[in-house]
Amino acid sequence: METRKIAKGISIIFQPTFIPIALYFIVSLSAVPTVKGFWYALLGIVFVALAPIVLVYILARYNKISDPDLPDRRERFIPYLSIVGLYIIGFIVFWYLGAPSQILAITASYIAVTFFGAFISLFWKISMHMAGIAGPVTALIFLVNPIFVLAYFLLIPIGWARYILKKHTFPQIVIGSGFSILLTYLIIRLFS
C-alpha cells in the first residue's frame, strides 16, 4: 500500500500539465531576459498549461470524459485534438508578437507531440505522462543548457510510478518518452 501512495504522489507532482510552467519561464527568460520574457512565459502558461486544464475540467464536468487523467485511450482523441487547437492558437499569438524561435519551437513541440499522441491513442495507449516530461527536458537541453540532461533521470521514478499504478505497460512508458524526445529534438532543429 505504501508503494502505491509513493507512486501516486510522484504521478501527481509530475503532471504533464504542470511542466509547461517551469519550461516557459526557463526558456522565455533565457531567450529574452527582460520583462518581455516574463510576459512570454505567462502567455505560454496560459495556452499550454491553464487552457488545457480548464478544457479537460469542462469535459469531465459535462461527462464527455470519464476521468480528467484520460486513462481510457478511446476517450483521448477529441480532448487531445482540442488541446492541440489551443496550442496552435498560442503559437499564432507568439508568432504575431514576434516571439523568439526558442519559444516558437517549444510551442510547436507541444503541438506535434500531442497531435501524434492523439492519433496513436486511436490504436494503442502510450504514456503521455512520460511524453509530457521527456519533451520539455529535451527542449531545455538543446535550448538552454546541456546540464539539463540530468533531468532525464526524472523519467525513471515517473515511469516506475505509472507502471506501479497500472496506468501503463513498460512499452507504453518507453514509447511515450521516446517519441516525445525525437519529435521535440527534430522540431528544435527545424527552428534553429
UniProtKB/TrEMBL annotation:
Keywords annotated in UniProt: Membrane, Transmembrane, Transmembrane helix
Q: Does the keyword Transmembrane helix apply?
A: yes
- The residue ranges crossing the membrane are 12-32, 38-60, 80-97, 103-124, 136-158, 170-188
Q: Any idea what this protein is called?
A: PAP2 superfamily protein
Which organism is this entry from? Atribacter laminatus
Taxonomically, the superkingdom here is Bacteria
